[in-house]
Design goal:
5-stranded parallel β-sheet, NAD, 13 helices, NAD(P)-bd_dom_sf, binds glyoxylic acid, 36% helix, D-isomer specific 2-hydroxyacid dehydrogenase
Length: 328
Amino acid sequence: MKPKVYITRKLPSEAVEKIKQSCEVRMWDKEDVPVPRDVLEKEITEVDGLYCLLTESLDEELLNKANNLKVISNMAVGYNNIDVEAATNKGIIVSNTPDVLTETTADITFALLMATARRLVEASDYLREGKWKTWSPMQLTGQDIFGATIGIIGLGRIGKAMARRANGFGMNVLYYNRSQKNETEKELGITYTDKETLLKESDYVVVLTPYSPETHNLISGPELEMMKKSAILINTSRGGIVNEKALYKALKENEIYAAGLDVFEEEPISLNHPLLTLPNLVATPHIGSASRKTRLKMADMAADHLLQALNKEKPDHIVNPKVFSEAL
Ligand code: GLV
Ligand code: GLV
């Protein structure tokens, strides 16, 4: 009997076809609407494999309904949407899609940094709204990137890719990470600091750490207060890492210069959210990994992981390797 698989969103057809070759597939076939909780609750009871996105919250309550589930393949590098401990206790393999999206996500992180520093969105609106009457000396002036200090919080794959870009722009690079990385420091010519020093000395503070209880509200009122008045905050990681109320206040009262966000505490962010009233915020709808090529690769990679696990092979990227040796 073929294993049963549920896919929680309409995927690129190549990935679906690949899974269909050896599995019985059911799929939530809408592209722009996440699967409703009650549908997922029903589907998860029977299946052997689940292919999901970061929009699905796979908490313990839901996992307790999964009687046959062997693998959750998440089409994302972040997996804070999954209760990994509960999955591990139930012997369910969890896989994610790192590496393929590293450079693409570093690109958008740098793009947000540049757009925010040089007020690109505001300037574009200014032109389109007919406000451009003449060239004038201080019109739409922003912040320099060349020669500035960037502080990277979280020196993982994306953090390193960001450091390389910053080097290319002649920036001075600081980083803060749970562990100091001596080799990388030498290789990239970057400097380790504590969080407080990084916040005080950086012109750009860039958040690239995974979301966990330890990083929840890592940037809140006190941290924003430590930052320079001219500093810019960029977050392309997960919304919960930055406290949005505190950020709103800091931006509104010009305690910091600007922010660029690709991620939010609640996604999609409500159009009534106070942050969206601010001119010194550049906001994008969680598109960090959204190049065509990378998203196709992520979809394919997550399909491979699912099939590997159902085949009793170890997926190329596994979040909870412990379970593999114990479960299969
Ligand atoms: C996107 O945010 C991801 O985690 O892949
Ligand atoms: C994510 O892949 C990271 O390690 O930065």
